Amino acid sequence: MALDGARSARPLRVAICLAHFHPVVGGAERQMLQLAQRWARWGHEPVVFTRSVRGLPRRESVEGVEILRVIRTVPLGPLFGLSYIASLAAQLVRHAGRFDVVLDGQIPWEAAATGLVCPLLGKQAMVMPASTGPAGDVQQVIAAKGSWLLRRLVLNNHRFLALSAEASAELQGFGCELSTIRRLGNGVDLHRYAPDAQEPPERARTVLWVARLVGAKNPHVLLRAWQRLNVEGKYRLLLAGDGPLATELQQFAQLQRLRNVHFLGTVEDVPSLHRRASVFCLPSFGEGCSNALLEAMAGGLCPVVSRVAGNVDVVRDGVNGLAFDDDDDGQLAEKLACALEDAPLRRRLSARARAYVAANHDLDRVAGELLGEFETLLANRARWRAVKSLKGA
Question: Would residue 193 count as lying in a domain?
Answer without folding.
Answer: no
